Amino acid sequence: MQGSENGNGKPGAAISRGVFMGGLGTAGALLATGCNTPKPSNVASAGGPTPGAAGAVLSGDARKIAEARGLAPADVVAALKTYVPSGKTDEYYMFASGGHSGQVLVVGLPSMRLLKVIPVFSPESYGGWGFSEGSHAVLEGGAVDGRLITHGDTHHPAFSETDGDYDGKFVFINDKVNARVAVIDLRDFECKQIVKNPVIISNHGHCVTPNTEYVIETSQYAVPPGWKPAAVTKSAYANEYRGAMTFWKFDRPKGRIDPQRSFVLELPPYWQDLTDAGKLASEGWAFCNSINTELAVPEDWNNGPSMEISASRNDMDFLHVVNWKAAESLVRSGRVSQKNGIAYIPIDQAVREGLLYLVPEPKSPHGVDITPDGKFIVVCGKLDPHVSIYSIAKIKQAIAKGGMHKDPYGIPIVNFEDALVTQIKVGLGPLHNQFDDKGNGYTSLFLDSAVTRWTVGDESGKGWNLVETLPVQYNVGHVAAPHGDTVKPRGGYLVALNKWSLDRFVPVGPFYPRNLQLIDTSGQQLQLLYDMGIGMAEPHYAQIIDAKLVKPEDIYPPNTDVFTLKPDPKAPVFGKEGTSDHGDHVEVNMTVMRSTFRPDVVRVERGKRVIWRINNVETAKNAIHGFALAGHNISLSLEPGKVETIEIVADRPGTYPYYCTDFCSALHLELMGYFVVT
Amino acid sequence: MSSHVETMEKTTAKPPIITTPVKQGRRVNGLLLVAAAMLLVALFLPWWQMWMHAPQYPDGLSVQVGIFSVTGDVSEIDDLNHYIGFMPLAAMAPVERHLGTVLAPLIVLLVGLASLLGGRWKWLALPAVALPVFLVVDLAWWLWYAGHHLNPYAALSTSVAPWTPHLFGPGGVGQFHTFAMFGAGFWLSAAAALLMIVALVRTEGSGHA
To answer: For residue range A411-469, what is the model confidence (pLDDT) as tens digits?
Structure first.
């Protein structure tokens, strides 16, 4: 509770002038008080004046403001820790999934300001995403059996890594509902590629290997490979349904996933869950949890048990341990078959080649996260109040010893006791882990609505201790810390990605904002600093990167095709714009510059297909134009230097204005033209 | 001065017989050679610069005018200028800028020749002495001309009255504060002009004796 008082000093809490005058000082003394006093909330209750470190007092104006706003001393400290004055910029970027909006959010830390919504799986009119031919082509890459899918459920953003640390070049994001993976290039913070998994139809686990050799995508709901129709019966499920771990090869120079060099490792239909790649001591291995080793199928409709009962019967499920380096060698040797156009390693082959092992884990766990040194695998119980700590050294030892039992699919099972180091009872509903730079781990507790801090211990099981629990508001899912899942966590902050907000914001109707809470982890005690409301779908996971590592372009070079980031050979040329008839279609080559579209009248005969290219020939950064065309479902964002192409059919006679949608100058309203279909 | 004139008169009147006059006459004129080198460098440096600042351009805009090119944020400045009907930078001094790319190197070449040939050839350096002066006069005229020939149909024609952009120092138009200054090319050419004047005057007095 104490943490709650720390961070959520109730607005109504009385604030003693004496505290402000004596207990707190100038900004510096204030911070010192907040950071170093073990129980800052008690400073308020202590009441009486105690000389500040500097002997100074909070200035009269600041004190009056704090009093008028009902701010407790801890609130003032929190404000000082998060406030980024105008003209200064944030220390970190947080890339958060946009949940079932299908997008990715970019947020600055510690200010928690929303900086960008990156359109990925769903059309986004502000960005022209799904309206331009280029973005349409990217979305087509994620078509399912030829059907264009225009929504997504983004879960686990993953920065590209070099030597196990974020390198700030790319972000990968998975779409759970259709088992797709997208590539975002951090040169311009835009999506460049979407790939559809040819074997599975839903995913959950998603991460990268320490040098971004592969983006790992793990299935969630088992289906027959290629999602072919099948009976929903226990026998059909056990025999035909399968899970899979897919290793998407990333071609870094091209900035694209290369499906031809990717491969799929078949898994039992255990409903694989969160996935993490080993690093350092565990490099070359990948780990994922599972939650339905019961092999249950939905039967509630048939008066049987529902999934929530039948998939939670077993006390133990299986941590999957995959030797991906060995799998890669096998694929490169050519001794693998293909399924739906991708290299495919069936379970029996994986077992024969020693690629796949199972380790029992308590009841339907959720997150699996590797400690920064790569030595330990931390599994969150979800339905069990522990985090279970496994050792890669112990697992390797057990594998080397051999003589293991096997599951029904013939996969060797390492004994629980042989792999386990220890368990920490952290609280109810442990879901996900992150790490800091001081040897601490952090776990979110969904049922307790809290985050915990614990210490990372050693192989003998010593030193794994619960330190502190801080309530968060409410129903926390993931937690994220700066570089918190890398070999080099930066520490200092933790963000709790809460599903519910209930009473945290002014009401906006029955759809509540999601609540991203910033927590200071630098002191001896965790302190809640800030609530950021998210007015859309829930961000699941987020990753936080040192802002200095991300170096995007501030303006596109002239004539840029933003999907290749190379000059567009068909870019309209300033001074040579116009409309040309090519029989079956009309080509419009247009430039835009403050404040004229050239041409500003486009006439087309009814029935013509129109290929319309627009080049923003501005050279000033931030001189963005928009382009909207009435009656034709067209919206574009034209950043300076960007060339976009649209295709429409002029099938309805009319006079349609087009205009700039992004206020660009005092003559913005005059930046328009007419599209006339006769 | 008078003694110099005397000396010169003596030498021109009675060239020495024993020494070799041709070699002496072609002795390299060091000052002119240095001036030629300075001008050669100046050819590739900006001669005039202007910086512009406005709230929405915290990094500012700038333009550099050189012998062979006008560089900097030309496109953006032209785009802004069109709102007040100020002519594009490329439209200013078209004749001078086209001829300049040929004439300026030629003028520098003449200084080089003057330094090597000496004698009465030294006067080949004279156009170079006039170069910085010409630049100032021509630029001042064009700034006045452009500022007083705004397109009356421009969008902001009623907001900006005709004015002469400052050739040197602080100025302003609209929400922009400007600062103009001669560039390194100009200063080098001016210094070279001083050297050349000294060289011309001195050789006038001392000759090649």
So the answer is: 999 999 999 999 999 999 999 999 999 999 999 999 999 999 999 999 999 999 999 99
Chain B residues closer than 8 Å to A594 by CB: 79, 83
Residue A645 lies inside a defined structural domain of this protein: yes
In this predicted model, what pLDDT tens digit does every residue of A346-372 receive, in sequence order?
A: 999 999 999 999 999 998 899 999 999
Residues from chain A contacting residue B76 (CB–CB below 8 Å): 618-620
Are A593 and B79 inside 8 Å of each other by CB? yes
Looking at CA atoms only, how far is residue A335 from chain B in angstroms? 59
Chain A residues in contact with B90 by the CB 8 A cut-off are none
Instruction: State the residue range of the domain holding A18.
Output: 2-82
> What is the number of domains present in chain A?
2
In a domain, residue A574? The reply is yes
Residue of A nearest to B77 (CA): A620
Domain ranges of chain B: 29-200
β-strands A560-561, A642-649 pairing: parallel
The lowest-confidence range among A249-253, B158-162, B175-179 is B158-162
Please report, as a single letter, which amino acid is at residue A189: F
Q: Pairing relation of β-strands A430-435 and A440-445?
A: antiparallel
Residues in chain A: 678
Q: Cis (ω within 30 of 0) for the bond into A595? A: yes
Q: A328: how many CB neighbours lie within 10 A of its CB? A: 19
Assess if residue A206 is contained within a domain. no
Closest Cβ–Cβ partner in B73, B76, B155 for A667: B155
- CB-based contacts of A101, cutoff 8 Å, min separation 6: A122, A152, A154, A536, A537
Q: Does the beta-carbon distance from A595 to B73 stay under 8 Å? A: no
The interface pTM score, or ipTM, of the predicted complex is: 0.74
Decide if A667 touches B, using CB distance below 8 A: yes
